[in-house]
Amino acid sequence: MKSKIIAWVIGGTFTLLVFFSGFVSAFYLNYASLANTYTKEHIDNGRFMLWALKLLEQDETEKAKDFLRSQVTTKVLIVETVRLPPTSKRELELIENFYSEVIDYFESQGGFNETFQVMENDVWVTKPTPSMSILEKFKSEQNMPIKQD
C-alpha cells in the first residue's frame, strides 16, 4: 500500500515537472523568436533608411522616394500578413490609423497606382499590388470614397 502511494506521488510530481518544463520552454522559445523578429525588423528599417539617406545625399531623390514608398507598402503587407485578432482596442486603432495615413499619402500622390503584371490566358494583365488591394479594401470598409485616376 505504501509503495503505491509513493509511486503515485513520484508519478504525479514527475508529470507536473514535465508539464511545467513544457510551459517554460514554450515561453522561452516564443520570446526568443519574437526577439529575433523584432531585432531583424529594426535592422531592416535601419538599412532602408540608410539607403534612402545615401540616395538623398547623392541628389537622387526619386530613387530615395521609391525606396521609402516600397518600405511603407511592405509595412502594410507585413501588418496585414501577421495580423492576429487584436487583443485590445488600442492595437486595432493603431492599425486603422496607420492604414488611414498611408491611404492619405497615396491619395496625395495620385491614388493607389502601384501595379504589377501577371500573365493570364497568354495575355499580360496589370493588377494592383497586394498592398494596394489591402488599402483599397480597408478604405471601402471604412466607407471612405475611393479616388480613381
Summarize the structure.
This protein is mainly alpha-helical and 149 residues long. It has helices at residues 2-57, 61-81, 89-108, 130-141, and strands spanning 115-120, 123-128.
Keywords:
149 residues, mainly alpha, two-stranded antiparallel sheet, 4 helices, 2 strands, 73% helix, transmembrane, membrane, transmembrane helix
Itemize the secondary structure elements and their pairings.
Layout: H1 2-57, H2 61-81, H3 89-108, E1 115-120, E2 123-128, H4 130-141
Antiparallel strand pairs: 1-2
Transmembrane segments: 6-31
Keywords: Membrane, Transmembrane, Transmembrane helix
Could you characterize the architecture of this molecule?
With 149 residues, the protein is mainly alpha-helical. The protein has a domain at 86-149. 73% of the residues lie in helices and 8% in strands. It is built from four helices and two strands; from the N terminus they run H-H-H-E-E-H. It has helices at residues 2-57, 61-81, 89-108, 130-141, and strands spanning 115-120, 123-128. The protein has a two-stranded antiparallel ribbon. Strand 1 (115-120) and strand 2 form a beta hairpin. Helix 2 packs antiparallel against helix 3 (89-108) and helix 2 (61-81) crosses helix 4. The longest helix has 56 residues, at 2-57. The chain is elongated, with a radius of gyration of 25 Å.
